[in-house]
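Notebook, bench 3.
Goal today: get a predicted structure for ATP-binding cassette sub-family B member 6, mitochondrial from Meganyctiphanes norvegica so we can plan the truncation constructs. The sequence was checked against the plasmid map this morning, with no discrepancies at the termini. Length recorded as 557 residues. Pasting the sequence as submitted so the record is complete.
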Amino acid sequence: MILVHMGWQEGPAGSASVARGSAWVGSFTKMRMLLPYLWPRKSLPLQLCVLFCFALLMLARILNVLVPIFYKKIVDSLGGSGGEPRFCWEYVLVYVGLKVLQGGGTGGMGLLNNIRALCWINMQQYTSREVQVGLYSHLHGLSLRWHMNRQTGEILRVMDRGTASINMLLQHIVFNILPTVADIIIAIVYFSTSFNYWFGLIIFITMALYLAVTIVVTEWRTRFRRKMNLADNGQRAKAVDSLINFETVRYYGAGEYEVERYENSIRAYQKEEKKSTGSFYMLTTIQNIVINSGLLAGSLLAAWLTVNDEKFTVGDYVLFASYISQLYIPLNSFGTYYRMIQQNLIDMENMFELLAEEKDIVDKVDAKQLVSPKGNIEFKNVSFQYVPENLSLRTFLFVVEPGKTLAIVGPSGGGKSTIMRLLFRFYDVTGGAVLVDGVDVRDYKQASLRQAIGVVPQETVLFNDTISYNICYGKMNASEVECQSAAENADIHNKIMTFPQNYTTKVGERGLKLSGGEKQRVAIARTILKNPVFLLLDEATSALRYPDRAQHSVCFK
């Protein structure tokens, strides 16, 4: 057992900002990182669902051609083109049936789209779940050094925005951008072959100008979105930091200061938001001019041919006008889709940076389990530094035999907390070795090493859950009897039974509903339940009344 008065050891502060170029630079690399999450390799039903959705998507492209064609047939039949007008009920039935499947001319509310969207829900949930769990697992695998240099609120914001962007990115690319591009190509080919090449040329030029304007202006707008994200991260981080430490804010009467600080962060965000929104309206205005110019040119040509070319009928004009209007409706949103894809890629940048963070502390390939430890600890000429040229420990050594107790005392900043962190292998030593039962801790699997060590910190922070959950965190599968027995040994059981909900009482954020002594007793009960081979005490009874300290010292022994 080691008794330590821990002092907070500050590592390198701040996080490096990463310079970024265009949002499309490295976008294919990002897509490759997403591939493991996009195809449900372990689920055949989901794979079939994905294939079915793509089949419906292809069928919708065919419908977009057939609907205007049958509209032309109806107009020509009713107008008596090439003969007497006739009641074309069969065309009307087919046309209405196609519209039911297509929906509103754009597929937005059509039967095919609704079936596809319903089937895609499971795939969306799969992707979101895999990404979130993977990122969460990765964050838990990063070192203490990394977590000490990041703000929790900022990390959570990056997670929220990044995971939400993945599904949106898939939605926009697979079900908006690709179908629209396919419809444009089909329209150019159809009108060039069925009408004449001038129609295909008008559509091609209009589409090319539209896409060029959209890409150029959206690339220019990207800088505003990035600045918005930085301001948004700062706003979230300030809010979380202030609310977590609200008690300190109250102690120093800094409520107005925190509100003003938060308001300033909102103003900074809104300043960048205004630039982004204004540039978006400029983009949509230019897009509308390009689209309607193409529509005007094509409509005038179709009207002229209808009057001057016997091959062209009123139905042909209606076909062109309805087809192009049908095509332009989703195309009018193409800029929005492109902008959203840009935003999604930008929103995912920080998430990919988190995923790219390398783990400082990793298990060796041949690392072994710490099984039935005897209880020997040795620090053998250990040297360690948080930052270069600033040694926290220099050739430090001690040995603790099984069943023995070692007390380490010293001034704040003397390296006592560092000793505990090195034993837990939160960091690796710079020189020397930390040995457990004569084996370097780097040769053990981290999980088995930490399972053998228990710690009662001076400053206890509890989960915002029940008392039972916090105690049983020391042994996840503990029974109710074991939990209460540990609480009795920590002399907290009777107090818990006075609470309205007993062991199911919520302790609040960071355990703030409990007093300092009650929190420390819960931490003691949690460690007792874990029953570790090695026990580290950081002034574990500092929050208890003096008469109770001797009782708990006996309990630890």
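Residues 4-25 have pLDDT under 50 and may be disordered. Residues 31-356 form a domain with the ABC transporter transmembrane region fold fold (CATH 1.20.1560.10).
Flagging this for group meeting.
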